[in-house]
Specification:
- The protein is an alpha+beta fold.
- 26% of the residues lie in helices and 45% in strands.
- The protein is built from one helix and eight strands.
- 7% of the residues are buried.
């Protein structure tokens, strides 16, 4: 009886451990690319602003929110990120390159001329 209990207990523990490892893999992927997620520009109330959504697969979109008119525009893109450099290629062929600084849930982007700050949602 003790041997059966031991083997059942061991099998249950092995099964629980395998679920534990499987549930961590998604978190590990996100840690590999900290830019993945939705980022909203820090802005004053009732002013236009934009947001970026970065997917794990290297695609994303930028949306411009025009508060006064309500005419929002979304622009899909592909991107690469490494060594604090973000390169974006929009579907229409336009390109942007940004130097990125990530501090907690704040991302600052600069192209040498402009500086923008975003909050991760």
């Amino acid at each position: 009886m003790k041997k059966e209990f031991y083997w059942i207990f061991t099998a249950i523990m092995a099964l629980m451990l395998s679920f534990g490892f499987a549930s961590c893999s998604e978190d590990d992927e996100e840690d590999d690319n900290p830019i993945v997620g939705t980022w909203i520009m820090q802005h004053q109330p009732n002013t236009d602003y934009d947001s970026y959504v970065f997917q794990r697969d290297g695609t994303g979109s930028m949306t411009i929110y025009r508060v006064s008119s309500g005419n929002n525009s979304t622009y899909p893109f592909t991107y690469s990120y490494g060594d604090n450099i973000l390169s974006i290629v929009y579907n229409d062929g336009d390109r942007e390159m940004w130097r990125v600084t990530l501090t907690g849930k704040t991302m600052t982007m600069t192209d040498g001329e402009y500086l923008y700050s975003y909050q991760k949602q």
